[in-house]
Request: fold
Amino acid sequence: MSHNIPRTQTAAVVVSPDAPILVKDDYPVKQPGELAPGECLVKLHCTGVCHTDLHARKSDWPFAHKLPLIGGHEGVGQVVAIGAYTNDSPVKIGDRVGIKWLADSCLQCEQCRKGLEQSCAKAKLSGYTVDGTFSQYVVSYVNHVTPIPENLSSQEAASFLCAGVTVYRALKYSRTQPGDWIVLPGAGGGLGHLAIQYAVHAFGLRVVASIPQLYRRLDTGAEKRELCLELGAEKWVDFRETKDLVKDIKNAAGGDGPHAALVSAANSSAYEQAIDYLRPGGSLLVVGLPGQAQIGASIFWTVVKSINIIGSYVGNRQDAREALDIASRGKIKCHFALKPLSALSEIYEGLEKGTVVGRVVLNIDLE
Reply:
């Protein structure tokens, strides 16, 4: 199978945190003969937009990224070239694959061997330390691209490569049992609306959808409430509709509080409140990543209530396959808006204001 690979492409480039995003039509495409062993070139069909991409654009996380940078890490496309001397490649030219946040890892260190590939000291991160998927072509790595199930469209699959696998893994290690209550602060957002569905359909949990106190006011409202309840949440708690958020969440979860809280809201207050409303033995799943905030939890009540604080960082290769497989069987649906790459700056504004419901997918094929 041969492909006509151009020398240049359209790409959205971050030059600096203060400069506007440049959509360039003459960005170089790495040619097949330039690929290193283990690398592959993927012609992208589409890519999701994640809140992490906004952090990369703003440079407000406490570890460095490359500049200039092509962001994006939820890409789906077709393998069009593989580096010479690549041994035992698990993918071949023509395969449809996904590019995730974790672009590559050493696969040999303790973290990689134990299934914590995403915490590998040599990890390469798509759209952060290496160029990502806001472009027509992307260089990735054969051992880490994820095969896309045949019965899942590229546009549907995109958001599961980060948002989906992130909440799936957190729920997988949440120490909950079917029938337990879980509260999802930030439930109407991109991660949250997928977390509702995985919690209900994959893990048999009962969901309280919540908008945490002091969270962005624009992230509340009837539209998000309607979506959360439609997706399977049994209860809805919004700080604008309550005088005591902690009490109302406890009451919504049977009176004793939820067994777990998966906080996808990138806001420190959401973590602090969780310690108060979780029932004894409950798990706080730390997922949302504010740039500089701290968890100001009560040590006394964390100990007395035997609270488990579990940091959960995206997912490994197996987590990604499992999350996509569940979605491919019709259990989980991603609510997304399809937009062109040229709309990226506008999308970032919506993410910052909290006005984006569900996810946004960029249709690269339209460029």
